[in-house]
Specification:
239 residues, alpha/beta, UDP-galactose 4-epimerase, domain 1, 6-stranded parallel β-sheet, 9 helices, 15% strand, oxidoreductase, NmrA-like domain-containing protein, NAD(P)-bd_dom_sf
């Protein structure tokens, strides 16, 4: 990364974008932000903001010129805009592109061999972002009502033990099956509610099939020198 200096963030005002922008502002990298023309999001005055038409490659290309790295953090149905981002990055000569692909390990080696990349890219397999997932209920915890929904009995019970210890009281526990959660996600998607994707992800990741467990691929924490965070302290900061 030493060869890279200029970084452009897309989706910097979202759940993931806000903490990522904060981290870059504390780093030696020169960071910029790309937003839609109609966006009303506000950012620190020290950060250059480029507005573009997300359907127009040439419009986005102008913002990406002189950028070394582009990091996309768009979510939901906006993830479909990324093909335009990639085309613009190629046209602008961007050296590395990080798509909004955080969480599951989705790379298929056989498919990749058939489709050699035209640009250097990285995908960060993080699993669910813990503090965000706890706050928005993705893990099944409702912090306001002190209730938790466990899928297939789930290992979220380990988190619940820490939550009850920190909170000093018992929480209300509700049980559902992964089949129920996945069915509800499919039903919502069929009705045009794209938030159903969250249910599909939760049902697959936290159900008995444990599709969210990517530990067999190994972890980069040690190689990057990242300190191990304390789950109890993290939860104390939330409650």
């Amino acid at each position: 990364m030493a060869l890279f200096k200029n970084v452009l963030l897309i989706g910097a005002g979202g759940n993931l974008g806000v903490p990522v922008l904060k981290a870059f502002l504390a780093s030696p990298y020169k960071v910029g932000i790309l937003t839609r023309k109609e966006s009303t999001s506000t950012f620190p005055k020290c950060v250059p903001v480029f507005k573009a038409d997300y359907t127009d490659v040439s419009s986005i290309k102008l913002a990406m010129e002189s950028q070394d790295v582009v990091i996309s953090m768009v979510g939901g149905i906006a993830a479909g805009d990324q093909q335009v981002f990639i085309d613009a990055a190629l046209a602008a000569g961007v050296k590395r592109f990080l798509p909004s692909e955080f969480g599951p390990y989705s790379r298929n080696p056989e498919f990749a061999a058939l489709n050699p990349p035209l640009i250097s890219w990285s995908s960060l397999v993080t699993g669910a972002f813990f503090d965000w997932a706890m706050k928005v209920g993705f893990f099944g915890f409702d912090l306001a009502s002190k209730t938790v929904t466990l899928i297939d009995g789930g290992t979220s019970k380990d988190i619940l033990d820490v939550v009850e210890k920190v909170d000093g009281q018992k929480w209300t526990v509700r049980h559902v099956t992964s089949e129920e959660v996945i069915y509800n996600g499919k039903r919502r998607l069929a009705a045009g509610d794209f938030a159903g994707i969250m249910d599909l992800t939760r049902g697959g990741a936290f159900g008995k099939r444990a599709l969210g467990d990517e530990s067999s691929h190994g972890f980069w924490n040690d190689e990057l020198g990242l300190p191990k965070e304390d789950i109890e302290q993290t939860i104390r900061n939330m409650l």
